[in-house]
Design brief:
- This protein is mostly beta strands and 162 residues long.
- The chain has strands at 2-5, 14-18, 27-31, 40-41, 48-49, 55-56, 60-61, 68-73, 75-78, 81-84, 88-95, 108-115, 121-123, 140-142.
- The protein folds into three domains: 2-31, no CATH class; 40-115, Immunoglobulin-like (Sandwich), CATH 2.60.40; 119-162, no CATH class.
- It has no helices and 14 strands.
Length: 162
């Protein structure tokens, strides 16, 4: 027969005294409880367009301990937010290393896609021209800042095309 005395919650050790009533033998055992398991809850992340604001991420461990994040691919992590570096796949891994009470949790990864950004191409309204007039200059720009290539079709031609 054994009786637990001074049993405490983890991580403190607890004492077990072995014996029964007045015939108890004085044996005291010091036992340290094992570390408990924990898991991470990390919800999925929605696809994003390049150029969008950094995305906040959250995850929780069943232990209540803090979860850390790491990024790989077309993104980076800073201060709990994912920065979108370019179009492509982004993987975020949530980790919890454990402590004296809890074992490390299995890492949980979420992957999402960073889509190419949209852009708009703008130029001024073109007015009708008379055959034989000097070539006109067409001012064109892209919202992305990338260069724009023009081509002409029909009864006109681009000077670069001739």
């Amino acid at each position: 027969m054994w009786a637990a005395r001074n049993q405490r919650r983890r991580p403190d050790p607890f004492l077990l005294q072995i014996g029964a009533g007045g015939t108890a033998t004085s044996h005291v055992v010091l036992a340290t409880p094992r570390r408990g398991p924990q898991t991470i809850a990390f919800p999925g992340l929605a696809d994003q367009a390049f150029g969008a604001a950094p995305v906040g991420v959250t995850a929780t461990a069943t232990s209540g301990l803090a979860v850390t994040f790491a990024a790989s691919g077309a993104c980076s992590m800073a201060d709990g937010s994912v920065a979108l570096l370019r179009a492509g796949a982004c993987a975020i891994t949530a980790s919890q290393s454990g402590d004296a009470t809890y074992l490390p949790a299995d890492d949980v990864s979420q992957t999402f896609t960073i889509r190419r950004a949209t852009q708009a191409i703008t130029f001024a309204l073109l007015v009708d021209q008379i055959f034989g007039n000097p070539p006109i200059v067409v001012a064109v720009s892209a919202s992305s800042g990338l260069p724009v290539n023009l081509s002409a079709a029909g009864a006109c031609a681009s000077p670069e095309a001739s």
